[in-house]
From TrEMBL:
<dbReference type="InterPro" id="IPR029752">
    <property type="entry name" value="D-isomer_DH_CS1"/>
</dbReference>
<dbReference type="Pfam" id="PF00389">
    <property type="entry name" value="2-Hacid_dh"/>
</dbReference>
<comment type="pathway">
    <text>Photosynthesis; photorespiration; 3-phospho-D-glycerate from glycine: step 3/4.</text>
</comment>
<dbReference type="InterPro" id="IPR050223">
    <property type="entry name" value="D-isomer_2-hydroxyacid_DH"/>
</dbReference>
<dbReference type="GO" id="GO:0009854">
    <property type="term" value="P:oxidative photosynthetic carbon pathway"/>
</dbReference>
<dbReference type="InterPro" id="IPR006140">
    <property type="entry name" value="D-isomer_DH_NAD-bd"/>
</dbReference>
<comment type="similarity">
    <text>Belongs to the D-isomer specific 2-hydroxyacid dehydrogenase family.</text>
</comment>
<dbReference type="GO" id="GO:0051287">
    <property type="term" value="F:NAD binding"/>
</dbReference>
<dbReference type="GO" id="GO:0005829">
    <property type="term" value="C:cytosol"/>
</dbReference>
<keyword id="KW-0576">Peroxisome</keyword>
<dbReference type="InterPro" id="IPR036291">
    <property type="entry name" value="NAD(P)-bd_dom_sf"/>
</dbReference>
<keyword id="KW-0601">Photorespiration</keyword>
<dbReference type="Pfam" id="PF02826">
    <property type="entry name" value="2-Hacid_dh_C"/>
</dbReference>
<dbReference type="InterPro" id="IPR029753">
    <property type="entry name" value="D-isomer_DH_CS"/>
</dbReference>
<feature type="domain" description="D-isomer specific 2-hydroxyacid dehydrogenase NAD-binding">
    <location>
        <begin position="130"/>
        <end position="322"/>
    </location>
</feature>
<dbReference type="GO" id="GO:0008465">
    <property type="term" value="F:hydroxypyruvate reductase (NADH) activity"/>
</dbReference>
<dbReference type="InterPro" id="IPR006139">
    <property type="entry name" value="D-isomer_2_OHA_DH_cat_dom"/>
</dbReference>
């Protein structure tokens, strides 16, 4: 039997009981739930990753909906417990939902929400930061400086890679991959090669127009192409950033063989999910190729790193902070709360999960809809006409 978990309660007399497995930034999400007659219970347990047993005791006998986190294992056990407690909605406070067994949720009639869009630019900005930090060896140089080792300018001190005129490769040109591609093309005048299962039409139009703009200004225009395979991206690009979803088809997408295809001095960035890279193979590749650099926000066995990675000077590592800006995290909390609330209240699903701005306007009431429900079709939920 799990130990009781500590909770903070808002609006104790609310009709609907909504549980958040973590405190989340801002108060708008709490207020929106309270205004709609919810009793909000927030788990304040000092334990970063809650176990399935912890969450079962949070759900208890009566629970209308849960806002959960990407660190939690939302499978058959939790959805059956939520269903027994009368639950109708669950939302990850994340766009990725590889921690959720959507089929199990659907079986119990529980809607699964996620938080797209609000984190697109924030995450792309971190991918761009890691690209620069790795290419220009910023962390290594910072450590050197703090260690008191700097004794004067030298022609060979921390020489890295220039981005301008080089090629940026994007694998998974969805919302975040496309935003990152635009930043690197526009900010650093890089040529683009991308691989996705689908054509990134809006990205292609943007890059084409930007190339024409540069040409009209007498500057060297950039080029772009959609690659026929991921391997083509790996062979040709100087900086490669990974942005696909994690599923069975993308597990270990970057393995030993594919690392070997990349340029010896390439930069590889991962802000998607850790298991997309075979991290053991990566550590070995970093050891064998000191000019090859990586910027990692995510890890295969989070929160752990594979042995050897922490010692690699050619790796920049940060703890899964790509969406960590105040505006974004508050917005993610709002979208997650509105997904759960919308399902409890029987609202329809928003027509376009890529355009969630109306839910994020702090000066207006949000639309009466669930911003983003990933199993809406399977549950045959109505679509909002707003
Ligand atoms: N590090 C972080 O904090 C952080 C923040 C936000 C999102 N993410 C991760 O980023 C992912 C992408 O988010 P998004 O909003 O851009 O999603 P998205 O659905 O808009 O984009 C994903 C893209 O990947 C493509 N794709 C799928 N399988 C592929 C494959 N085998 N090869 C190439 N492309 C493939 C899809 O077609 C799609 O265009 C999320 O699922 C999440 O796991 C991480
Ligand atoms: O999928 C996500 O949203 C991230 O990993 C956290 O922002």
């Amino acid at each position: 039997m799990a130990k009781p978990v500590s909770i903070e309660v808002w609006n104790p007399n609310g009709r609907y009981r909504v549980v958040s497995t973590k405190p989340m930034p801002g108060t708008r999400w709490i207020n929106l739930l309270i205004e709609q007659d919810c009793r909000v219970e927030i788990c304040t347990q000092k334990k970063t990753i809650l176990s399935v047993e912890d969450i079962i005791s949070l759900i208890g006998d009566k629970c209308d909906g849960v806002i959960g986190q990407l660190t939690e294992d939302w499978g058959e056990t939790l959805f059956s417990a939520l269903s027994r407690a009368g639950g109708k909605g669950f939302s990850n406070m994340a766009v990725g939902y590889n921690n959720v067994d959507v089929n199990a949720a659907t079986k119990y009639g529980i809607a699964v929400g996620n938080t797209p869009g609000v984190l697109t630019e924030t995450t792309a900005e971190l991918a761009a930061s890691l690209s620069l930090a790795a290419a220009r060896r910023i962390v290594e140089a910072d450590e050197f400086m703090r260690a008191g080792l700097y004794d004067g300018w030298l022609p060979n001190l921390f020489v890295g890679n220039l981005l301008k005129g080089q090629t940026v490769g994007v694998v998974g040109a969805g919302r975040i991959g496309s935003a990152y591609a635009r930043m690197m093309v526009e900010g650093f005048k890089m040529n683009l090669i991308y691989y996705d299962l689908y054509q990134a039409t809006r990205l292609e139009k943007f890059v084409t127009a930007y190339a024409e703009f540069l040409k009209a200004n007498g500057e060297q225009p950039i080029t772009w192409k959609r690659a026929g395979s991921m391997d083509e991206v790996l062979r040709e690009a100087d900086v490669i950033s990974l942005h696909p979803i994690l599923d069975k088809t993308t597990y270990h997408l970057v393995n030993k063989e594919r690392l070997a295809m990349m340029k010896k001095d390439a930069v590889l960035v991962n802000c998607s999910r850790g298991p997309i890279i075979d991290e053991v193979a990566l550590v070995e590749h970093l050891k064998q190729n000191p000019m090859f650099r990586v910027g990692l926000d995510v890890f295969e066995d989070e929160p752990y790193m594979k042995p050897g990675l922490a010692e690699m000077k050619n790796a920049v590592v940060v703890p899964h902070i790509a969406s960590a800006s105040k505006w974004t995290r508050e917005g993610m909390a709002t979208l997650a709360a509105l997904n759960v609330l919308g399902k409890i209240k029987g609202y329809p699903v928003w027509g376009d999960p890529n355009r969630v701005d109306p839910f994020l306007n702090e000066n207006a009431s949000p639309p009466a809809a669930c911003p983003s429900i990933v199993n809406s079709k399977a549950l045959a939920l109505p679509v909002s006409k707003l």
